[in-house]
Fold this protein.
Amino acid sequence: MKKLAKNTVLCMQPVPKTIVSCRDKDGRNNALVVGFAANVSLDPVMVMVGIVPSRYSHHMVKESGCFVINLPKKGYEKEYNYLGSKSGRDEDKFEKMNIQWKDAEYVNAPIMTDCPVSIECSVIESTMPGTHELFIGKVEAVHVDEEYLDEKGNILWDKMDLM
């Protein structure tokens, strides 16, 4: 095993792939692929997403104080790659890719309905430790396609074919 220099860029790939959707103060929806997403707390349930301040969605999350984490299934690669490579500054990505969505129930952001899991989050804190602003979100609601729930309401992660 070779030891790398301390300043070598380390980029672990999150699994599953993650799309954050948000809405600006004028009601425009946007979504971006994020490489930094993680659980933060079990009680209360909190998660974190990292967004570079130059990204168009950054100001939306900062101003609205909310976001939705969407977990796409395999077969959604075209949309995922598009959302990760284009900017909402230049076009309406939802319209361009015919992204299906509905309003979230607890936060002012869109839920991407083609994703089997969507997690509504309210920002409770943010920090800027380096290149990305880390938005810590309290989970307000989790939406899961019924086919991926057991009779007790537990998520059947192994039944999903997430990206």
